[in-house]
Amino acid sequence: MLRFIVRRVLGAIPILFGLSVILFMFLRLLPGDPAIAILGQHATPQLIAQIHETLGLDKPLYVQYLNYLGQLLQGNFGASIIDSRAVADTFAIRFPITVELTIGALIFAVGLGIPLGRLAARHPNGWIDGLVTVVSLFGISIPIFVLGYTLAFIFAVELHLLPYPGPIDPRLSVDPVTHFPIIDAVLSGNPGAVVDAFAHLILPAIALGSIPLAIVTRITRASVIDVSNEDYVRTARAKGLTRKRVDDRHIMRNAWLPVTTVIGLQVGSLLGGAVLTETVFGWPGVGSWVVTSIQNHDYIVVQSLILIFATIFLTVNLIVDIGYAFLNPRIRYS
Amino acid sequence: MDGARGGFGAPMPPRVVAVVRKDFDVKSWASVLAVMALVAMGCGGSSSTAQDVGPKKGGTLTVALDGDIHYADPSLVSDSTSLYVANQVVEGLVGLAPGTLSEIVPVLASDLPTISPDGLTYTFKLRSDVKFHDGTDFNAAAVKFNYDRWKAFPKGDLQSNATDFAAVFGGFGSTSNLAQVDAPDKSTVVLHLIHPQSNFLISQTVAAFGIQSPTAIQASGDNPSLKVNAYALGTGGQGKAMVGTGPFMFSEWAANDHVTLVKNPNYWNAQSAALLDRIVFKPFADPASELKALQSGAVDLVETLDAAEVGAVSKDASLVVLDRGSGCNITQLGMNDYDTVNGVANLLGNKGVRFAISAAVNKPSYVTGFYAGEATVADNWLPAGAQYYKREYLPTYNLSGSRSYLAGAGVPTSGLNVDLYYPTGAPTTVFPDAKGLATAISVDLQAAGFVANLKPEAYSPNYLADQAAGKMQMWLQSQSCQWAGPDDILYSFFHYTNDLPSAMFSYKNDDLNTAMTSAMTDADQTKAKTDWQKAQDLIAAGMPTVPLLNAKLPAGAHTYVMGFVGAGNRTEILNTVWLNK
What's the domain range around B513? Predict the structure, then answer.
């Protein structure tokens, strides 16, 4: 197992290196100039040249890349071209917000998706299965931004049931200690702030979790039906075991494997989906940061964030692979 | 000001809004009247009603902005969002009268300055009763510290961001037109210029020239690298960034989440002290989110509405569009007026053709069609309300007139090909519907004998870069004022040096250039006014581009937001705002 982990970690290095080269070149091939993004309509050739010099954009591309790589190897992700803040500092503030949103979406998707999948599998091809299928298709088909704006319009604008936008009402003056909005609300000792933070999470979590919900539901359904048709399940039933015991000990234990794989892979998708969800719901997390940085041609931030996202994705995949071994003792890594 | 639209103007009494439910029956009304009578009796016969109640103090106003601020040091910002926040916190020697674009009034100076006859020396007498938000004294030494600091900004981050100082004074250090600042006593400061510049006073109304606490800046270290400049990054919080003298004090900046200002309890001008306890500014990435936040009650006021938002806000009884009056911006049909390139003649190099285009475009229809009526037809390149503005009588929509211009220009009267560029992905407050506007213009031009080839291009930064480089023949262009002086638009558009017109317009008019050069360096403001108005006449006679409209950029708010006194260039201070709830 240890050898497997070491091999996977070492294998990630050329992937990340290659990605850094591609990202660096790709972003600079895009038309546009960050100096003009900074200066806007007041850009003059003199000011543009001055900003190029200040930011080192007047140097040859390979020099710029080597400078960037040198910083990376020292654990320095650089600083934003637009607001001069260190990427690592801003990431430390924004990432907890994205994590909270991702966890919220995952809880929604898994918490609802597995029961729905099991329910559909218990009545295959019946009306309940049909209804679950329709809900799944709806979740997977509708774009996040459409669902997000629709939810906001219905529940925040029309019904005033849930708050919008942002992770917490700024009027509550919750001190950002951990930068996890709910935890900070708890630490503030203000019960109203805690309720407000949870309420702010509901709509974006539903919007972001809609696609994973559909996938988890479908995979759970398919997996449970597959396992239900296995001989050992039939045997268990023939032995007269209760339905609950058959479900819990014989079906679900074996149906978990593909479901776990999918849940693990969804973490990466959720981080990607956060880009849209955070923009729609005004969450100041990493996702909305990517959007504004792309708009501003903030090369350093975009390339650093994508590298960090890639690292997270590779790590989560590795954890899922390791998790297999615990869920299914028959799997051995070498 | 459009009082009928509610909540606008100087502090106003709260409006009594009767919410009438359709299912209210006679019995219900009788109950209400009975309760009202009891309440009146309970008031001991007083005639006091809700309308007599003055502005309420306290509360938090949440304001939606079109993006985050860039830095917490106003001298390093030039974007409208950062300056909007800075305007609440810092004050300059002079400022603008509320609700005006160009009426200069003393603020930290006790009076307007005395200007030497040669226009090189500005002597300001200062108020003696002012303190910075950190409790230190405002005085002549503080003013000198600020101007000296700006002038001495080292090359790198600070110079790159202090674009307003560079634009006004022509550069930093020895290249700056600011020769020296003297502080002969605590309440007198003297600014010496190398050459006279007639835009000096109006340019000093911009928040980038707000005076900040020397103590706070020095304590922060004022690092030339913005990556570690705690003052500019606002990381220190209250008293350690954006330390000015205004009615609100900087409290906190959570980047891309919110900026919080709190009331300055010791504001030097008690009559103009803030009514609100706090303002929270929330940045938004797109107008749709901003509008939903307003509708859901998450924000009380949206700083700038685009045309689509204006429509939605107007239809909502709980919301109100806050008119700021005439905007300080110009949306025009940019034109490259070069004569020939590689031996090929440019149609737009012909003045008659430019006049024909001017008469072919139906400007009022663009105002109603693409700006929800929140714009005025431009009759000059300079927005109405700007300093030394003069109304010019430009051709109005007249197809036969347009054809006459073409006939007189000696060009064919049909099949005239021009490329018309428009931006995609532009902020909707700049171009609410650029494609729609370009299409409407192309249809109008077609009726006059032109064939306009529509050319879309991504707004930022390609479009801006290409227009600056003169790569477009004709294009939609929008420019807003940094200050409402004629130089900020006319000079930046059409002035040139070394006999070489700007690449953007390629418009060479030596008489105009001479008039503008003279206007910029006039020591006497009366002479400057004459020269600037002559320049406007010359531009109108040459029609280098076609001004279309001035967008109004209204704000939007809940009806309980009262006392908003808007300014067309979005420089209003929210000290008069209060919440009627």
Answer: 329-551
Asked, for residue B457, whether it belongs to a domain, the answer is yes
Say yes or no: A27 contacts chain B, CB-CB below 8 A.
no
Query: CB under 8 Å to B327, separation ≥6 — which residues?
Result: B375, B376, B383, B480, B550, B551, B552, B553, B568, B569
- Whether B160 is in a domain gets the answer yes
Q: Do A42 and B167 touch (CB under 8 A)?
A: yes
Please state the pTM of the whole predicted model. Answer: 0.84
Between the two ends of chain B, the Cα-to-Cα distance in Å is: 23
Q: Which residues of B touch A175 (CB under 8 A)?
A: none
Strand B278-283 and strand B60-65: pairing?
parallel
Report CB contact under 8 Å: A292, B256.
Answer: yes
Q: In this model, does residue A17 exceed pLDDT 80?
A: yes
- What residue numbers bound the domain in which A248 lies? 87-327
| Mean pLDDT, range B509-529, rounded to an integer | 95
Q: Do B301 and B282 touch, CB atoms closer than 8 A?
A: no
pLDDT in tens, B76-120: 999 999 999 999 999 999 999 999 999 999 999 999 999 999 999
Nearest of B565, B568, B570 to residue B275 by alpha carbon: B565
The reply to whether ipTM tops 0.85 is no
How many distinct structural domains can be found in chain A?
1
Shortest distance between the Cα of B460 and any Cα of chain A, in A, equals 7
pLDDT of residue A217: 94
Residues B232 and B335 in one domain: no
d(CA A266, CA B247): 50
Q: Chain A interface, mutation test: which of B78, B80, B256, B431, most A Cβ atoms within 10 Å?
A: B256
Partner-chain contact A43 B464, CB within 8 Å:
yes
The first and second tokens of residue A243, run together, are: 């339905």
B374 belongs to a structural domain: yes
Query: What does the pLDDT look like over B334-385, one tens digit per residue?
Result: 999 888 766 778 899 999 999 999 999 999 999 999 998 999 999 999 999 9
For residue A22, being part of any structural domain is answered with no
**Hey, is the C-beta of A98 within 8 angstroms of any chain B C-beta?**
no
Helix (H, G, I), strand (E, B) or coil at B340: strand
Residue B454, beta-bridge partner list: B420
